[in-house]
Automatic annotation (TrEMBL):
Keyword Glycosyltransferase among record annotations: no
Source species, domain of life: Bacteria
Membrane-traversing stretches: none
Cell compartment(s), UniProt: Cytoplasm
SUPFAM superfamilies recorded: Nucleotidylyl transferase
Record's subunit section: Homodimer.
Motif ('KMSKS' region): 197-201
Presence of the UniProt keyword Repeat in the record: no
Protein name as catalogued: Tryptophan--tRNA ligase
Gene: trpS
Length: 332
């Protein structure tokens, strides 16, 4: 059976991008079709300036939202990365396979290190090695597929390289995984700056729809979305990124192709209103379920405890095999 692994980093409140690019597919498809594991990758949240209490709060919130969105612990494994030591254990071995040049070439490293420098902060070494830990997340489980948004494609490509290199040098240990992306909304853009990804850790929040936003906040953000001065509605990602983003969001909500939807609206105002209605309806059940689950933290904690035990049992044999393969003496 195909095995799937993916994760979300608790660096901010989850956004519509996280939902349309990743989480919704985990719920609607992956957990039904494969042996699936989903984690809150909290160790990754320590790679940039962070507030310990906030990371803890956001980790619990992310797990609660994953369940509220419909991940079913009877069908898949939901856990927190730091609860399973195998991730950090394997990450070190992979650091001995990776070279620094390939880390420095990562787009996200370039962007985030530049941001840290311009804020006068040091660039944490863990930001450079971030993709190695992500590779460990995936390879420890011998995952075949990694369902992610477009922005993670380069990291999964690197994961493939590291798996192949390790297998070649030390004997076949890892499965070489592949990324899968949704057909539309693989990169939801910021509503205020449609050339930039809608990112949960961005400081300017007017262009970001959060999964827990109230309906009127969603409608307001969409009403104010930046488009262009062209008349009418047409789907052209290059020339009309703002309009294209709205069409893709609507397409992802309704299942209709963006090109088709463009024909149905003659003005930006009507399009924005339709997107607002579709997004509010899409998120309504999730918000309601989140409110219920938030009142039952014992349930969420129980899911995470059991999830970590299951994840550990899957990861340990592979990580132990990697330790042996690379030349470490097994404990007597
Ligand atoms: P993160 O936490 O930034 O995002 C979680 C998932 O949401 C997708 N995503 C988007 N999709 C479409 N449009 C957007 N605007 C958008 N923003 C985010 C991401 O592609 C991702 O699928 N490095 C990863 C977390 C990670 C991971 C892993 C993922 C760590 N280890 C192992 C898969 C497997 C990250 O920062 O995702």
């Amino acid at each position: 059976m195909t095995r799937i692994l993916s994760g979300i980093k608790p660096t901010g409140h989850l956004t519509l991008g996280n939902y349309l690019g990743a989480l919704r597919r985990w719920v609607d498809e992956d957990q039904h079709q494969a042996e699936a594991l989903f984690c809150v990758v909290d160790l990754h949240a320590l790679t940039v300036e962070h507030d310990p209490a906030r990371v803890r709060r956001l980790s619990r919130q992310a797990a609660t939202l994953m369940l509220a969105a419909g991940l079913d612990p009877a069908r898949c494994t939901v856990f927190v990365q730091s609860h399973v030591d195998e991730h950090a254990r394997l990450s070190y071995l992979l650091e001995c396979v990776a070279v620094d040049g390939e880390m420095r070439r990562m787009i996200q490293y370039k962007e985030k290190s530049a941001r840290a420098r311009s804020a006068g902060q040091g660039v944490r070494l863990s930001l450079l090695t971030y993709p190695v830990l992500m590779a460990a997340d995936i390879l420890a489980y011998r995952a075949d597929e990694v369902p992610v948004g477009d922005d993670q494609a380069q990291h999964v490509e690197l994961t493939r390289d590291l798996a192949e290199r390790f297998n070649q040098r030390y004997g076949r240990t890892f499965v070489v995984p592949k990324a899968t992306h949704p057909a539309v909304a693989a990169r939801v853009m910021d509503l205020q700056n449609p050339l930039d990804k809608m990112g949960k850790s961005h400081e300017a929040t007017a262009g970001i729809i959060y999964l827990l936003d109230e309906p009127d906040a969603i409608a307001r953000k969409l009403r104010r979305a930046v488009t262009d001065s062209e008349p009418g509605v047409s789907y052209d990602r290059e020339a009309r990124p703002g309009v294209a983003n709205l069409l893709e969001i609507l397409s992802s909500c309704t299942g209709e192709l963006p090109e088709k939807l463009a024909e149905a609206y003659d003005g930006g105002g009507a399009l924005k209103a339709a997107v607002a209605e579709a997004v509010v309806e899409l998120l309504r059940p999730l918000r309601a379920r989140h409110a219920e689950l938030s009142a039952d933290q014992g349930f969420v904690d129980g899911v995470l405890r059991e999830g970590a035990a299951r994840a550990r049992a899957v990861a340990r044999p592979t990580v132990d095999a990697a330790y042996a393969a690379i030349g470490l003496l097994p404990p007597a």
